[in-house]
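Model the whole thing, not chain by chain.
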Amino acid sequence: MDKIAYLVEKVRKGDVSAMARAMSLVENEMPQAREIMDRLYPRTGRAYRVGVTGPPGAGKSTLTSQLTRRFRRQGKTVGIVAVDPTSPFTGGAVLGDRIRMAEFATDPGVFIRSMASRGSMGGLARRTQEVADILDAAGKDVILFETVGVGQTELDIAEAADTTVVVLVPESGDAIQTMKAGLMEIADIFVVNKADREGADRIKMELELMLQLRPDAEGAGWRPPIQLTVASRGEGVDELLGKIEQHGRFLRRNGLIEARRRARLIHKIHELVTERLKEKFWTEERRQKFEKYLQERMEDTVSPYSFIDELMDD
Amino acid sequence: MDKIAYLVEKVRKGDVSAMARAMSLVENEMPQAREIMDRLYPRTGRAYRVGVTGPPGAGKSTLTSQLTRRFRRQGKTVGIVAVDPTSPFTGGAVLGDRIRMAEFATDPGVFIRSMASRGSMGGLARRTQEVADILDAAGKDVILFETVGVGQTELDIAEAADTTVVVLVPESGDAIQTMKAGLMEIADIFVVNKADREGADRIKMELELMLQLRPDAEGAGWRPPIQLTVASRGEGVDELLGKIEQHGRFLRRNGLIEARRRARLIHKIHELVTERLKEKFWTEERRQKFEKYLQERMEDTVSPYSFIDELMDD
């Protein structure tokens, strides 16, 4: 058996270090990544994927940990993909993330992967989907994505997840007024966390008002519920879990899980094609031409548009 | 003179309806767009570009209006590119935007373009740069980008702007703790708006603390100042303007304006190449193959990775 086949086999069995190794290969875009993903592919599509997003400081990490504990009590295994828990200032994981890592460190039923999102477009890191697929192929029952999200840019998570939980806090009141497309449209469930603070009821009312105005899109019959929680004390988390499960049943009943997975497949194929086209196009020769164009400041005489025409004609 | 040449000529003269028409053609990716941009290109590169970003509700619109008034008093013409002032719920511009439109409606020295960012990745809409180039070619002295930004995703605006202003409010305290890469790294100037509210000094202190830890990147000698403002009453806005001008001088003195513009050019060429590669690749024939792959649920036997190999081999 070759090395990749061996690695893939171990990933399928849920071997922790094989999973970590496969993820690193994929994240660093190593040549083996394609074959690994290709071979793991038939084993994906079983895990239920939950996205947890919201503005910074809303308590997403705490909530994710609380959900994880409850899934574990149900006997389900959990994979957590935490996007961007690193800070450029400390160079390491933020406190909340380190605490969580410690909590689940000895539980083989929980696998946590932190990914930096820096430089990527959108709220999820570039390779998030592949990392989730690895967790899926390794047999994790639930995958939790956790990512900062605000406003208009976080359509990514809605695409990656079966159920998207948008976490707000009482202080987000102002934000809702200008929240616009983004979070409102992607939310399957709203959480008002830190609900022991002033303003929780007001924000709940505002959300309800906005939801009444929301056009019924894909959901066709699903009205996003609003759950108040105090994640730090575990309050409201059982109810939240109930709502996630309810949404899962709703999706299954209406054939929407399949539709969402299909949308992911389409998106993935488009993305991979684009990547490969770029790889193929930017040959050493074309790179050098581009270098020359820049170094000789040719853009004063040849507009970038004409330069591209030239480059494509080769 | 052909139609496009005529349009381009009128844009160069600052004709308002020609500008709007050119922008619509570009935004809607009409076939004429390329030639328009190509012909306008030699006239770009003169405007100074300022990005105003921050969480929803921070008062970015009010601040942008205040800055615009002051630039106008200096005799400078202003182009405003406001990304995503539309709400899917009301279908129109939000109140603040409508008020602003009214304020400057009779001033030919101000041109406002609102763009929806929906579906685009990153904080700026897909065609923002081109719209700014049109404003630039039309002779606007200053271009103000205004966009919602949070955390990790808003590197776009830093790339589009010469000076990036990150607007926070006293309530953003929690956010700073988890702010991470995004806003901290891109800020050339911080504004704490609504500074008459409680907590303004605290957040200023927190920012100063974080800035001390910030590695000195490109800035090489520029330490982002923090300006307290109450934009609704115009307080602190003159000082903010002073800081923007100071940053502009700093960039010029160190040859960094040129460096930033070059980075934009590189990015633009990469993006345009990718777009054209995709256009060329997705022929009717390949689209049909993809359709077939999906419809016949071939993904159960042929993994997406193998399918792409097949598609690329054609």
